[in-house]
Amino acid sequence: GATIGILGGGQLGRMLSVAASRLGFVTHIYEPGANPPAGQVADRLTTAGYEDAEALAAFAASVDVITYEFENIPTAALDILESHRPIRPGREALRISQDRLTEKNFLQDLGLKTAPFADITDQASLDTALAEIGAPAILKTRRFGYDGKGQARIKTLDDAQQALGDMAGAPALLEGFITFSHEVSVIAARGIKGDVSCYDPGENVHTDGILDTTTVPAKLSAGQRMDAVLLAANILNKLDYVGVMGVELFVTPQGLVVNEIAPRVHNSGHWTQNGCTVDQFEQHIRAVVGWPLGDGQRHSDVVMENLIGDDMDRVPELAKEADCALHLYGKAEVKPGRKMGHVNRVIRSQSK
Length: 352
Ligand code: ATP
Ligand code: MG
Ligand code: MG
What we know:
By secondary structure, the chain is α+β, with helices and mostly antiparallel strands. It is 29% helix and 28% strand.
């Protein structure tokens, strides 16, 4: 069998590796950061170690195909890796999703709805954008944001000044605030021959900018469900995408608004581990090695809950719960806001 290279040693890389092992593949993980100590799971806060051309070339030469668990891989590193082995999903998906401005323009060019947005370079452009877009708004760094990091809610001009100062010159985007009834996401997969398969959309609740729960099925009409899946398929097709992608959506009376896309397996797809025959991790591995996509139909309703920071104290109780699958990441250190694991509560009386 093939050997699969995975960039990133966090929990997503780990769960991809487990899925690949189940299919008989060997995986090599590239995780050069000082964090983590050997054998432990990483938080990908920086791109440290991705400037080491020799290490990257050696890694690429040791595998047949390369995939990744995070989208912020530097272009120079990608150039080196790709000169040795194919990278899936491909470069275009990374180029688009590494920068919120590029991503929003891409989505609008596809005819999809996004929040109103403006590129912010200085105080003057922020003042202009705020006048146009109006308050409340959200200032976001264009690159490297996750779990709500690098974002500030803006109600007044004072907030705006403060927030821009905090960003210390990092390129930023101002987004108008979308009044949504709820948030959903589509976990979509596209195979090497262009076949697309979407999981049932999940309904996501965020607390302090971090995903708290995903519930399937989501509250959506048949029409909204169809819209969600079709727009996701549109995005994957446009990118000639191979692998699994997370597409985050706001549900509004005016229709679905695309928040952001993630060119990888996604936290809001963790429910598939206990709700589907083939989960998002196996689906991603199948796609990147050129296998046919698997059966992603939901066989059970599921509520996924993230275990963040001190939630780990609840593990002994959770371990006794019926119909509750524990997934712990083995991170050595508990930190506030750090994703430590998740549980999938499976609802046996399936709704159809
Ligand atoms: P992730 O961990 O999903 O990558 P992120 O740091 O990239 O998160 P976003 O997804 O942009 O952050 O925003 C986090 C959450 O903040 C969203 O799920 C939503 O609840 C809220 N949010 C973001 N942008 C907007 C907006 N324009 N209007 C209303 N709410 C928003
Ligand atoms: Mg994001
Ligand atoms: Mg998000």
